Amino acid sequence: MPIPHSLRERFRDPAFWQTFFFEVEGATRVPDATVELSVGGGCLLVLEVKGRYDSYELGIRTPMSNGVRSIGWDDMAHWHPFAFRWWELDLICRAVAALDPLMPHPGPALVLLCRFVSVQDDDDIEQITSTMHTAFESLRPSGWTGYWPNITDWLDRRDFRGRGVSWTRDQLGNLYATQQDDADPPFYSMRGEPTDHPAGFPYNEWRTLLAAAGHTLDV
Hints:
Strand order of the largest sheet: 1-2-3-4
Helix content: 25-40%
Order of helices and strands: HHEEEEHHHHEEH
Strand content: 15-25%
Radius of gyration: 17 Å
Distance between the termini: 26 Å
Number of helices: 7
Shape: globular
Structural class: alpha+beta
């Protein structure tokens, strides 16, 4: 099971999502958990949930990796969460769904990973908000009308349209971001200009994972 039972059993608890998305600090305890989502070809997304620290770290593992390589993290101290472009996240979640009938898309995988995506100038905002609304609502308890994750709150923290972020694709196919110095809010992401530094974004593994997801979906 890619999502541990201790985490999945909390999905229909509004207080859980308030804490998960930093809406209300300490509304409930988010259990520590490791979520592994396969996209095929031996490639996985690995989400480390450290509920006691309100910390979420996202990594990838591929056949060429030496362990799990970090691609972003979200907490309330020194966050660098923006790992995905929307089309990448959508591709990955569709590949996960194709391999696991218990993980339909849009659904739980998208809700768990959506904290790591940003919305950019060239994205289709109507398609994104429609998909995210469907994902959030897929987990809502029947008849519940109180707090629930919603598009307005989610988008407010991840909308970088008109925020001076530019994307460049290099000769190897690596897509990386730069932001104007005076832009606000700052775009905290590991996806800067590619470097050989071992702590940098693992672009080689990332290209391998996206290719594996595309192969799973035959696209």
